[in-house]
Write a structure and sequence with these properties.
The chain is an alpha+beta fold. It has 4 domains: 220 residues, Histidine kinase-like ATPase, C-terminal domain (Heat Shock Protein 90), CATH 3.30.565.10; 143 residues, Ribosomal Protein S5, domain 2, CATH 3.30.230.80; 82 residues, Rossmann fold (3-Layer(aba) Sandwich); 121 residues, Four Helix Bundle (Hemerythrin (Met), subunit A) (Up-down Bundle). Helix content is 38%, strand content 18%. It contains 22 helices and 22 strands. A hairpin with a 2-residue loop joins strand 18 and strand 19. The longest helix is centred in the middle third of the chain and has 24 residues. The protein is elongated and about 115 Å long.
Length: 641
């Protein structure tokens, strides 16, 4: 096959240009991470070659000794550093795709999340995982010379860019497979052409890489009697890193710093993880896992198609990135590695879905993550608070997806409650149960559009009066969560805005008072029901209100208001239902309504009462103009009185 000899100058994709600019300016204070990122990419390329060579050994081209090589060079005009690997390599189309565009989904959302704050933006860039572009932090020109394994020497490709608007690409023969990246260093970054400087960075960031990272041995100390080396003698290379897969070592042999650096390698995150768990399982199944909990959520966390899953190795051989079969969707934030001795080396994603060994490993790894979270919550409450702020809403998906671990997940959930009355979700269900009143047999909660709406819900009035704690739920997932959670520690959950109020702690006197109120309000309830028959399923008197005139209640089997709003916003059909209007007969406005003889005025007052109850719940009026017109008529009547 004849190589494409054209030299083309192409423009970067718009998003790539923006990322290049941000990379150069946001990460300038942490320049040395470029070396970690490029060595990590080289290691990944070698892993991919290993895997491809299982099916086609000829891809190794007789050179099975896989390694990364780092070379530095100085002259009066140029200082360079070159990172080379003999991995899978790229062809022309792959070079354009990988180095000229950002094909990752959610790029626009990522860019929208950038703040201009260099520290915050550098963390986001790390989560996005654009390691190659970090080369331009230290270089004003970058050359990439690559050839895909299995292709002829004349199929080599040379890519070059100054990191601005354009890059060039042309054919250039390459005798060996793999990729070499040469960075022409900026004047203020020329220390990265110093052998000792580069060695220290490699030891710091890349000691855990499972392939050797080689550098030329420094010249021996001068000795007048020693034989001088030949001028063109080949350089001798030595491994700078340990070159042992970190997860294969014993836990006592790995330092915390090594664990943290390995996390950054597998996640492309710039921050340290919150915690990790390293375990070797022996017996019916044999595998090793190293699992990490990040400290920061990625910008695309709510995209359920986001990059997720563990790096899968079989018998130390890399098989695939993002093997999502080993953890459920609600744990999609977990990063790490699983290395199995039981799976086949030619395993595919389709085979993983059907393998009973994978299902067994998935169950065990899920429990391990939940145990990690329980341990973090118990021993490092501040760190768990960080975790919950970043990933709590995702964990709330768990009870619906993982029935077997519902109780474990429930213990990890955190809520706002009337006990603290603050928006911070820091109260566990165990905390709630420990504070329950003597005769209380339910866990009460209210769901609203936001925290303030929940906190000031009229449904809470009788609970505050009696000192009964209520969970204040306002996350989008909360209504869905409670539909699946149902009970905790033998106590059923009760939505205070659903169905008739049933307080086990009510006294006989209170029950008698409610019956009396209902009887005295029968005429008003019937009259109001006729006025509002198109809007409500029924009207009834209630004792749940102490300060408000009215509230809306959802029927026992009807969809909650929050879930209805979410489905409507998503364009999903929702079943028709009407709320129940409960009125407080003791409230002055309701008394005034009861005494109103003018039927038109009564209808206006009744409609306003309903609309206000709807607004308090965070709902929207079907006809705001009609509401304003009624209010204006009443105001005018009051001014004439």
């Amino acid at each position: 096959m004849t190589a494409d000899v054209r030299k083309e100058t192409l423009g970067f994709q718009t998003e790539a240009k923006q990322l290049l600019h941000l990379m150069i300016h946001s990460l300038y204070s942490n320049k040395e991470i470029f070396l970690r990122e490029l060595i990590s990419n080289a290691s990944d390329a070698i892993d991919k070659l290993r895997f491809a060579a299982l099916a086609d050994p000829s891809l190794l081209e007789g050179g099975a000794e896989l390694q990364v090589q780092v070379d530095v060079a100085k002259s009066k005009k140029l200082h360079t550093i070159t990172i080379s690997d003999n991995g899978i390599g790229m062809n022309r189309d792959e070079v354009i795709e990988n180095l000229g565009t950002i094909a990752k989904s959610g790029t626009a959302a990522f860019l929208e999340n950038l703040t201009g704050d260099q520290k915050k933006d550098s963390q986001l860039i790390g989560q996005f995982g654009v390691g190659f572009y970090s080369a331009f932090i230290v270089a004003d020109r970058v050359e990439v010379h690559t050839r895909k394994a299995g292709e002829a020497a004349d199929q080599g490709v040379l890519w070059e860019s100054h990191g601005e608007a354009e890059f060039s690409i042309e054919a250039k023969p390459k005798e060996t497979r793999g990729t070499s990246i040469t960075l022409f260093l900026k004047k203020d970054c020329q220390d990265f052409a110093d052998d000792w400087r580069v060695r220290s960075v490699i030891k710091k960031y890349s000691d855990h890489i499972s392939v050797p990272v080689m550098m030329a041995k420094p010249p021996a100390p001068k000795d007048d009697d020693a034989e001088k080396p030949e001028k063109d003698a080949p350089l001798e290379y030595e491994a700078i890193n340990a070159a042992t897969a970190l997860w294969t070592r014993g836990r006592t042999e790995v330092s915390d710093e090594e664990y943290k650096e390995f996390y950054k390698h597998v996640s492309h995150d710039f921050q340290d993880p919150l915690t990790w768990s390293h375990n070797k399982v022996e017996g019916k199944l044999e595998y090793t896992s190293l699992l990490y909990l990040p400290a920061k959520a990625p910008f695309d966390l709510w995209n359920r198609e986001m990059t997720r899953g563990l790096k899968l190795y079989v018998q130390r051989t890399f098989i695939m990135d993002e093997a999502e079969q080993f953890l459920p969707m609600y744990l999609r934030f977990v990063k790490g590695v699983v290395d199995s001795n039981d799976l086949s080396l030619n395993v595919s994603r389709e085979i993983l879905q059907q393998d009973p060994a994978v299902e067994s490993m998935r169950s065990a790894l899920t429990k391990r993550v939940l145990d990690m979270l329980a341990k973090l919550a118990k021993s490092k409450g501040d760190d768990y608070a960080i975790f919950w702020k970043e990933f709590g809403q995702v964990l709330k998906e768990g009870p619906a997806e993982d029935f077997a671990n519902k109780e474990k997940i429930a213990k990890l959930l955190r809520f706002s409650t009337t006990h603290t009355d603050v928006a911070t979700q820091d109260q566990s269900l165990e905390d709630y149960v420990s504070r329950m009143q003597e005769k209380q047999d339910k866990i009460y909660y209210v769901v609203a559009e936001n925290f303030n709406t929940a906190k000031h819900s009229p449904h809470l009035e009788v609970f505050r009066k009696k000192g009964i704690e209520v969970l204040l739920l306002s996350d989008r997932v909360d209504d869905w969560l409670m539909n699946h959670l149902q009970e905790f520690d033998g106590k059923r959950f009760q939505d205070v805005a659903r169905g008739a109020l049933d307080l086990a702690a009510e006294s006989e006197e209170e029950k008698a008072e409610q019956e009396k109120l209902s009887k005295e309000s029968e005429a008003l309830v019937e009259r109001l029901g006729k006025v509002l028959e198109a809007q409500v399923a029924e009207v009834r008197a209630t004792s749940r209100l102490t300060d408000s005139a009215a509230c809306l209640v959802v029927g026992d089997h009807d969809m909650g208001a929050q879930m209805r709003r979410i489905m409507e916003a998503a364009g999903q059909p929702v079943p028709e239902s009407k709320p129940i209007l409960e009125i407080n007969p003791a409230h002055p406005l309701v008394r005034m309504l009861d005494e109103e003889a003018d039927e038109d005025r009564f209808a206006d007052l009744g409609s306003i009462l309903f609309d206000q109850a709807n607004l308090v719940e965070g709902g929207q009026l079907d006809d705001p103009a009609a509401y304003v017109a009624r209010m204006n008529r009443l105001l005018l009547q009051m001014s004439k009185a």
